Amino acid sequence: MICYYCHEAMQEEVDIVNLFKKRAPLCDGCRDALSRWRAGKRCGFCHRLMQTDETVCLDCRFLSSRFRPPESITCLLDYHGAVKMLFHRYKFTGDCALAEVVAMFLDSRFREYDVIIPIPISKARMEERGYDQTTMVLEAKGVAYSPFLETKTRSRQSGLGKAERARRENPFLLNCRREDLEGKRILLVDDIYTTGMTVHQAMEKLYTFFPGIIDVLTFSKA
């Protein structure tokens, strides 16, 4: 079998134990490279790499002054080096097989939630890319999800400051009934957590239907 990331052949003994087992899409070396996190001081909530002289996370302080926060944020991978290249290939070169690689790092936490909601991409982005990078990973893991959020076509936010992003109209719409969310344990899933603006705007909409709690899971922290 070929490693999905480095495309090198993987040696594996075939015996009665692993004959019918699904093969891992990564070699040990690539799995180790993708699992590494940069050393340094990090925010205990959003996992942002902080300067040594920072006493509070400026991103979290800014967001908490404008939005109701989630109960928790979990980030699976550190967006640098091999991980950064992984997502570039997955999102921008059409290498859909890498959804299996990202799915490798998901665990069984999904069973704790009543509703799993992915952050959607716009129709224009879907037409351009041909697939939704977040839901494809969930499907690769066999996780059932609810498409309760829709998004309007929006311009890219890279290069904008936090305040300017916050002033823009919330791009999300709800596609569900109040009873679908009220009192429920919700897991909101996104691919990459950068400033946190996207997931907080999505939660702003979800909170209008009074869920019990909202936790956030992102595949990578930039």
TrEMBL record:
Signal peptide range: none
InterPro entries associated with the record: ComF/GntX_DNA_util-trans, Multihaem_cyt_sf, PRTase-like, PRTase_dom
Phylogenetic lineage: Bacteria, Bacillati, Bacillota, Bacilli, Bacillales
Official protein name in the record: Competence protein ComFC
Family: Belongs to the ComF/GntX family.
SUPFAM superfamilies assigned: Multiheme cytochromes (SSF48695), PRTase-like (SSF53271)
